[in-house]
Specification:
alpha+beta, 4-stranded antiparallel beta sheet, about 180 residues
């Protein structure tokens, strides 16, 4: 049998075709599987971080005054809201803002966990829709350093940052007490 005949015979053979197809498709299928698992995980964590910021702003906006004990309780609640992720690594800041006029918003008080509190009476930039003179706003900010458990598609960490605004409901502005 000549080399040319052996080559034709090899090309006509259908044995092992499934193995070749699997070898071509398997890496793409594995990438899609792990990539989709990682994408769903980061989206779920992002939603929990967004919910934590919104919940913090909402709880403070319903108060008539905010004490140190309440602030400490809110920081502890963040750990619960972030479960099953590690809530202790989330940085948070809650700020009471008084809107002076259509162009000026000033900090009344600010508290932070992992974030530096804003300086009292400093100017803050708010969305135009929030700028209603004579009112106040509670602004909650969060930053969560997300590290993928798989590390397949997302390498290293990425910060999931959120800002939530709520109008003061009962007292305008909400005072900070010791």
């Amino acid at each position: 049998m000549t080399f040319r005949q052996m080559l034709r015979r090899f090309g006509a053979s259908e044995k092992g075709i499934a193995a070749v197809e699997f070898a071509i498709l398997a890496p793409m299928m594995i990438f899609l599987l792990f990539g989709s698992v990682e994408l769903v995980e980061v989206l779920n964590t992002n939603k929990r971080a967004q919910n934590a910021a919104a919940s913090l702003a909402d709880v403070v906006a319903r108060d008539t005054e905010v004490s140190t004990a309440e602030i400490n309780s809110l920081w502890s609640a963040i750990d619960v809201l972030m479960f099953p992720d590690e809530g202790a690594t989330m940085e948070m800041r809650v700020t009471s803002i008084r809107i002076v006029d259509a162009a000026t918003a000033r900090v009344v008080w600010s508290e932070g966990r992992g974030m530096t509190p804003r300086t009292a009476n400093s100017v803050v930039t708010l969305p135009a829709q929030m700028m209603q003179p004579g009112t106040s706003v509670i602004m909650a900010e969060s930053s969560y350093p997300y590290a993928s458990p798989l590390g397949f598609v997302i390498d290293g960490t990425m910060d999931l940052e959120h800002v939530a605004y709520r109008r003061s409901r009962l007292v305008d502005p909400i005072p900070r007490v010791g």
